# Entry
Amino acid sequence: MGTCVICFANNKGGSGKTTTCANTGSALSLMGRKVLLIDGDMQMNLTLSFFGEDDVLEFAESGRTVYEAIVKEEDLSSYIRKTDDENIDVIPASTLLTSIEMDLFTKIRREFLLSRLLKKVKDSGDYDYILIDAPPTLGNWVMNILIASDRVMIPVEATPWGLFGLANMTDFIGRVQEIAPGLDILGIVVTKADERKNYYKQMRETLSELDEIHVFESVIHVDSSVEWAQDASSTVVKYKRSSRSAKEYMQLAKEVDGLCQ
# Structure
């Protein structure tokens, strides 16, 4: 297969989107896949999953983040950072992404800017997967990310409000597909699950009624190991492979890999 670009998106905060993106990338790397992660969220949590705070500050001071690439309209190749994992590279984020909507407003064909700047990297064949973490918003920047992607994964937290906004997200994706018909929804993945809660069962029943959207068999349960990994600037897949969530992310990555072949 060629390089597959997957965006992780949900307009509701707290969905486990960044954690799922980071750990899916780590799991794919352990399967021998070469992965590039692009942090498109101004909170920079994806970047912090692979680098310490000092490194992140250095990236910002050097002006070599995805934000500067977009503003300067420069090819993304020179913005790639190596990690300790030989199979994982990262293009870091910046807090300056808070102004990205205003910056994009001045650009010609602004919806396609990220796609254009990513083309050389994608066409190089250096990566099996390019995973992009989108911010929990719906606007020109998220539209850019979706248009640059082949597939989109929607993490949904297993809480009473977990499905809140899902209809808005799928409607937004539908509008993007009108100008980017090659974009497909890879599926919904349930995160932060606690099967002892009644609302978990209700949520699963609601998702089972979705006819046109795939729901991953892999479910990511609540696990304190995830927080310990984040505190160590790591992914749980690397930090504690014996943990329940690490095993679940490994299984999710196998599902993703199978669907993208």
About this structure: The chain has one domain: 4-260. The longest helix spans residues 244-260. The mean pLDDT is 92. Residues 4-260 form a domain with the Rossmann fold fold (CATH 3.40.50.300).
